[in-house]
Amino acid sequence: MLFPEMPGMVSYTYRKSFAKDLPATLDTLQQMGITDMEFSNLFGHTAADIKKELDQREMYCSSFGVGYKDLMEQTATVAENAKTLGAKYVRVAWVPHTGAFTEEAARQTIADFNAVGKILKEEHGLTFAYHNHGYEFEPYGKGTLFDLIMEETDPAYVSFEMDILWTFFPGADPAALLKKYGNRFKLMHMKDLRKGVVGNMSGGTPVENDVALGTGQLDLPAILKAAKKAGVEHFYLEDESETYYQQVPKSIAYLHSLKK
Fold first, then answer.
1. Maximum CA pair distance of the chain?
2. Going from the N-terminus, what domains does the chain have, and what CATH number goes with each?
3. Cβ distance 37 to 59 under 8 Å?
4. How many CB atoms lie within 10 A of CB 119?
5. From CA 241, how far away is CA 231, in angstroms rounded?
6. Which uninterrupted H or E stretch holds 236?
7. pLDDT tens-digit profile of 29-49?
8. Which residues form the Xylose isomerase-like TIM barrel domain (predicted)?
9. Which of 23, 172, 196, 258 is the least crowded, having the fewest Cβ atoms under 10 Å away?
10. What are the contacts of 68-74 at 24+ separation with CB within 8 A?
């Protein structure tokens, strides 16, 4: 099998459920066999509360997602929460910008990531990861601004989480990028894009365009083969649709059906 393991889960997939009843939602995920979580919201709880609930279910949090402002201005608090959760990674998924993403914005992002990544690693023992969102693939030189960010961030302090939909949507090739940059990618969001939807550089698409893995446009076998070879450590399912509870089991079944 190409993907025999149980994937992890991004809390955002079950965001409405977590907001109503976090323990019951963890029960649902535990019953599905999910053990690896990426939390990008504490849903009104403390990090210690969530860690306790995870421990009771033999689940764990491997990555903690935060906003850019908190990352830069509340670094110590972010690190404390990540460590309390038991996470190894701190992830940010959006760089605030207006209009098209520019070289100037990319260079500020590079400087910020190198600085905060160093603090997280050296002072807190955590690894910082940036989750691409599509707008970074604006043309630049012989490549894109994503290439610039990748090339000018310090591998010792800055890793990446590939969101495969937000790589494909702006016109990039997820498998090719995994082959090009290898172990810079430590984490992955697995999601699929509805057939017929045309992408752009906006970093946004209606949530109903998230479909069960294997039913959309992405070449999942090629992407997963490249990801395994690159050494991606954590694979999380993300489904922003309103029917995620129907689609998630289908996505897991699809992953487990893949032959090498």
1. 51
2. 8-257 (3.20.20.150)
3. yes
4. 15
5. 29
6. strand 234-237
7. 999 999 999 999 999 999 999
8. 29-242
9. 196
10. 68/92, 68/94, 68/95, 68/96, 68/112, 69/96, 71/116, 72/112, 72/116
